[in-house]
Amino acid sequence: MSESSEQVSAAAQSLSQGATEQASSVEEISAGMNEIAESIKSTTQKAEDAKNLSQMAGTGRYAQHAKDGGNVQGDGGDYGEIQ
């Protein structure tokens, strides 16, 4: 009976350790996915800004944008300083 108890205890301990390691792995994966999501969000914003700048260049608004110190009325974009 004592041997059975020891086997059950060892199995329970092994299972507990495996569950802990798996939870840690899930946390790492989740953190990585959050970083990827933030990177995608940033890239999307930069692509939108680039699109808006290219549209302004095509309509002549880019020159007005630079003349106004980088602020184009009504487009809501923050394109930084035009050099």
Task: Give structural notes.
The chain has 83 residues and is mostly helical. The chain has helices spanning 2-59, 61-67. Helix 1 crosses helix 2 (61-67). The longest helix is centred in the middle third of the chain and has 58 residues, at 2-59. It is rod-shaped, with a radius of gyration of 28 Å. The relative contact order is 0.07. The mean pLDDT is 83.
List the helices and strands and how they pair.
Layout (H helix, E strand, L loop, with lengths): L1 H58 L1 H7 L16
Helix pairs in contact: 1-2
Keywords:
single chain; 83 residues; mainly alpha; 2 helices; 78% helix; rod-shaped
Proportion in helices: over 70%
Given the structure, what is the number of helices? Answer: 2
What structural category characterises the helix and strand content? mainly alpha
Straight-line distance between termini: 82 Å
Estimate the mean pLDDT confidence. 83
Per DSSP, what share of the residues sits in E-state strands of 2 or more residues?
under 5%
Order of helices and strands: HH
Low-confidence stretches: none
Beta strand count: 0
Radius of gyration: 28 Å
The biggest beta sheet is recorded as:
none
How would you concisely characterize the structure shown here?
The protein is mainly α and 83 residues long. It has helices spanning 2-59, 61-67.
